[in-house]
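Forum > Structural Biology > Help requests

Title: Can anyone predict the 3D structure of alpha-glucosidase?

Hi all, first post here. I have the sequence for alpha-glucosidase but no way to get a structure on my laptop. I'd be grateful if someone could post the structure tokens.
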Amino acid sequence: MDEDDYLGKISSGILLAVCVIGACGRFYIRIRIQKQFSIDDGFLMFGLISLITGVLILLSYAQSMYVIESIVFGGDGIYSEPAAALSRQACSYRKYIFISNILTWTAIVHCEMGKNKWLLLKYGVPQMVLDVVSDLMILAIPVRLIWQIQVRWTQKVALAFCLCLTIIVITLTIIRASGLYLGGNVDVTWGNYWQIVSAEVGLMMTEVTAFRSFFISRNDENRFKPPNSKRRWTWRGLSRLTTKSISQSQKIEGLFGKDEGKVAKEMPKYPDKALTEVRTCIHGDAPSRTLRMDAFGLGGDEEPPLSPNTQSNLEIMVSHEIWTTSEKVFLSETTLNEVTDEVSRKITTFLKIERQIRCSGATYCLLWSTTSFLVKDMFNFSSSVDWDLTRRGGVIVESKSGVTPLPHLPAPPTLQLHAVTPNQPTNVSHLHILIISRQSPTVVELIKHKTPPPTIMADVRSKFTVKPLANANAIVGGGSHKYRFTVLTEGLLRYEWSFDGKFEDRASVFAINRHLPVPDFRVINKNGILEIITEKFHLTYDGEYFRPSGLSVGIKGNFSCHSSVWRYDDQCENLGGTARTLDEADGRIELGPGVISKKGYTTIDDSKSMVFGTDGFVATRHRNVGDVDGYLFAYGHDYAGAVKALYALSGNQPLLPRWALGNWWSRYYAYSDKEYLALMDRFEEEKIPFSVAVLDMDWHLVDDQKVLASGKTGWTGYSWNKKLFPDPEKFLSNLHQRRLKVCLNDHPADGVQNYEDLYPAMAEALSHSTENKDPIHFDITDRNFLNAFFDVLHRPLEDQGVDFWWVDWQQGSHSRIPGIDPLWVLNHFHFLDNALHHKRPLTFSRYAGPGSHRYPVGFSGDTIVTWNSLAFQPEFTATASNIGYGWWSHDIGGHMFGGKDDELSTRWVQLGCFSPILRLHSSSSQWTRKEPWTYGPEAGKVMTEFLRLRHRLLPYLYTMNVRSATEGTPLVRPMYWAYPESREAYNVPNQYLFGSELIVAPITASQDPKLRLAKTKAWLPSGTYIDIFSGAVYNGSRELWISRKLEDYPVFAKEGSIIPLDAAAEPGNGESNPDNIEILVVVGADGAFDLFEDDGSGSLADEVKWTRTPIKYSQADGVLTIGPCTGAISKNGSREWTIIFLGLKYQYCIEVGTEARIAKLEKVKNGIVVQAGKILPNARVIVSIGTNPELVHNDMGAFIRPILADAQIEFALKEEIWQIVDADAPRMLKISRLLALEIDENLRDAVLEYLLALGTHDL
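Reply #1:
Sure, ran it for you. Structure tokens for alpha-glucosidase below:
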């Protein structure tokens, strides 16, 4: 290689020149013509300057480069410079060539010096391939544009020039690589060439974009001139839509129909063009006005108003134009006569709000038209309408204020369109929708509608899955009979009587799915007696009106002293369900029915419930006095089976969003935005995580003078209190930035008052006269009101950032229509409405009756701050599962009255941690706060730890949430669900199963002040259990007293249990899948747990793509296996896994992985910690702890000594008790001596708990 490589120099120079010319062309177009300069232009300019500077440095040191190479490779030249000078020259060259490399963007592959040809194969050829591929990608752009767009020949030349430049680059690359091969050398000169070529790739891409922008901008500059105009207005933000050619055979209908008596013509066929915009123009005697409406949105922020001096005889021409890339295609025009000032203003408003709907799959242009004398009515609506989209089996476009939508329209493949107009004009004669697909860019269709369409959101809220018609093969009777039996499952029977023989086949709020697989059953009809026999029951019926002597069902199995027979109209024994509210309850209240009974059967009367019409709205039954519609659940002691049958009939519990399982903050208090955000920041400083921020009623106007003047209480409101929240959107955005979902309280009963911000919009939507400023009354039975309630009243607030609503209905079960419960209607439609935007729906409201489990989460009401209230809540929560209601949210800590009690509040938070939902709440009193730092140091510390634990439990809780939605297993269940034949299971109503792995025995009574211990009575079924906090081991099959300090809580895991946790000791806000996992494992029996996670997408459980991580433990081998993950998504990267073997003996040698490395162990209070290290999602890790490991025996000293140390009793008594416990004697003797002492009962129970923990089998 020598200095006379002119081909290399010239080709490199050409490449550089092309790059510089292309970039400069872009700058000219962007700055001179388009008058825009954005951040990408700045980056490009920086890159161009760097490239030029680097090349100049490279050229300035070219002489040094050739000298050094000649010395290295051997050349013909003679160099007289001393070696030291050459060395300095080489060092200088290396320094500046390094700077040049940086400035010219280092090559993808850097070539090295050497003569061997294998270097060419290793470095040169791969670089050439990469460069050619990159150029081919650039080449594809102008080729595609020329193919798609029908443009003028000058524009084609510009694009062809781009194409030719790219071809030149590819040719030069091949020439240079060929010369490299023939020369046989790979040197630094060639390496620098590759750097320039790699930089050229990015600049050529920009150069092509510049030419595309060039011909569009030139088109912009020349053609946007209003017709017949003496003035000119500028418009900003005009983007373009480039579409495929329009078929010659395709035809667009006229914009105005013949029935309007106006000029109507089809848009003429025109040569294949690219449709870019639709214009609406007004012109006539007055100065012409033109509104340009491009394919992606309105342009222009200067609105040319109509002349204020417009006369009534003014003739104005309204025209609509279709524009292609280079010319317009005239579509239609209409003359409007007798245009008044009011009509002129309306027309201006109309032009202002004409708009495009944007979505990912298509662009939909909406145009309205009407006859001249209806113009005023036509345009009588608000001019501020925003658009939003959501996808649910297609594309749904919705308005953010009062709306009237279109029905389903034909749309591109896989898309279903609902387009929404502003509030419905009453006399619209035509509505035209121009559909342009962006994915398949072709003018699809122009559709004309002559009738006002129904509301889109009402359409969405009406669509929920119901299958009310039972399979005909499951029905016995009906037809000419007045009775009808439907065998829904082997243990679920529907029995009906109708005096007129008309049976109810619509879905009720209780029964929405009667179309179930037909179970095996036999029918015997002999001597006028009908018998129906299934695997679980035997029915006998005489054919007459239902009465105890004529209709009976025998339940197969032994569930009572004699037999289990249900007779019609008997009062069934029932294990209870739940209640509508705990408002002002101070202890136990009466519960509604469940679907399980110790006798093996129970019934649900569905004769009076509401039904759903074919349009999806609620309706009343058509029934005669004495008609019967009931359901018999005959599942014996298969309680889980009975509830699953309930879910089959009434629908499953929905899948809750993960964030709903974290901590909720709520308080009835008039926060300002600054106060609320400061509180959230304080929680973050204290490392107390939350996922939901609830604002009680003071977010809206309550004590304002406008409210007082109206004579209302301010209990209902929909206008932000701007004194407290001057910028609601910013406030809500700040909460979202803190990873919090937002819930607003709504007491809807008082309707909409005239001082509300949304009163005019509601009045217009409901045709409500505002002349006397009469309020709009709440009437949820009026479908128009219901639609406006959501679409006009709630939607603007949701658009500001509200995620869901707290429906605080307290006004009973009556409405304007007898039989329609407003709470049912609110719950049902709130839940459906919240599913918009393809998110997981959630509402927060009171229980309305059987079937309410479809609308979580439940608000249990305003409870009293007492121990009695706390004592009833565990039972209340657990028995709710007997009616399938699994997601109660209580006022943790109580809401009102009562007194300050640190221990009570702490125990309530501990219960909340192991409840379906943990929501702190209190009244507006300054003394009833729930922030942990407002309590004593000990209580505050314990509260904080359990609030953190709640978020650490999210992996376990979310998996149980999945099981609830897919398997019909509620999170919290009474003990008798799993142990129906054990008498003791019915004697501990407060104790419950928490998920699949845990048993919780809540402490609901105050502690003994002398012992500083609180106790509760528990029952442990057969097996061996461990307290997950203390590590104490217990043998089951017995009742016992459990005593705990304030920081401890009785939560037991059976041998073989596996409990996954977030490994973070201090989790943050929100609900994201954890970075690291900690699992608690109890040895002693085989165990398995499938951890479920997802990315949060999907409204229904069936739509979610899960990631499942299997965790299995084998007792015989002593092996724990984790992974590999399966499913659609996996956690990016690896996770740290920590295993805590609860109660494991320390002497085990624990090995991790296939290499059998000895694990790092750490002894903790409740077991041994094993660090398994990082595990990839697709990996399987095995942890071996030795064959048949055993749980450690309790260390009596470790458990009993602290009890005695804290006890406020005489030292002598402490010593006497310790001597008994520490003696080397049989446990029976120790227990006998302890019982003989005259000591406090609570102290004796606390000590005996551990002496008897392992049972009495070895006494």
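The two ends are 98 Å apart (CA to CA). Residues 751 and 778 are 4 Å apart (CA to CA).
Shout if anything looks off.
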